[in-house]
From TrEMBL:
InterPro entries: Carb_sulfotrans_8-10, Sulfotransferase. Its EC number is 2.8.2.-. It comes from Aedes aegypti. This is Carbohydrate sulfotransferase. One of its GO terms (biological process) is carbohydrate biosynthetic process.
Amino acid sequence: MKGLNRTKCRIVRRLFLFFATLSVIPFTVLYLVTSDHLYRFRAYNYGTGTNGSRHQLQYHAVHHPPPAVVHHQQQQQHRKHQQTHDQQLQHKAIKNSTSNQYQIDMDYMKHRMEDRVTRLNDKCNEYRLNEPKQNYKPKAWEYLINREYHLVWCNVFKAASTSWMYNFNLLAGYTPEFLKKTKDVPLQLARQRYPRPSVDALREAINGSISFVIVRHPFERLVSAYKDKIQYALPNSHHHKLGIRIIQKYRKLAKGQQPWNTQKYPTFSEFVNYLLDEVRHPHTEIDMHWIPVTYFCTPCFFHYDVIAKFETLEEDQNYLIAEAQLGHMIKPQWRNAGKGAHTNDLVVKLFTELDDEQVRGLYEYYKYDFELFGYSTEEYFSGRGR
């Protein structure tokens, strides 16, 4: 009898365990699913952060430049199709999620620079600009040579010149604190540490250095110079006085109208008339802020390792800094961004004020800059006779 009771007890216990196990299974499944979702959620938060910034998880995001100006989207789109191959593929720099710096595809960037240097050399040969002439000889005057860091730069004004003059002053030993508070002109500070070289000294320095130049679309550079040096000229400065002379010579006044009762600075059309008149006189010294790069740096006489472009500067200068191993000394940054409307927008507006003869005259003056560095004129001649 006792044996029978023990058997019944075992059966009851087994049935109890069986049904208990069945009842636990749904809760186990629910727990596993919930834990998996929770883990994924935490991993996502760990990677993105509460404000959307990424921390430890190294996701790479392709960097895209700002979109074209909305009011002139069609012109900008056409211009994109006219760009050289390297500009069409300019989205190769990858933003580092933790340091907010750029990781550079060095092979791609090296190919980009080789393409630009090849074009420069080909066009120099085509136009025979690598042959000294009476009015076109090698000019080393505007180059800066940093012998400690083996860096050579031709300082083209209105093409990131303020930013890179600051960088070269840092490399010369000036501290950021000093550069921030000093009233001295940055170029004058630089020339105290970087004497103007001779042609032979420059060529010797280039052989053991990374040499570079930063260029910009000639018409955009011209507009930037007009805006900065003419429209917003400092009172009583050289360019302010120049503006007064331009108004006196080129402004057409109604009968009885006085110049001081009209616009206080030269219009872009008046400025262009002044520039084209200056160009027609071969012995006139053109202002360094709008002289063509071809004449300012004489690039056909010197070798460049890097030809950076203002339009792709963020990528190009990161490559340059990495190639020169100067990341511990200088950081890419923009200085003197300018005043008023964005330059691209302003260029389109101001060029509508010019007649066909003025635009053709400007093109002829900047022709070699367009050719040597691969810039297009199409949108500026659209609807005009050439």
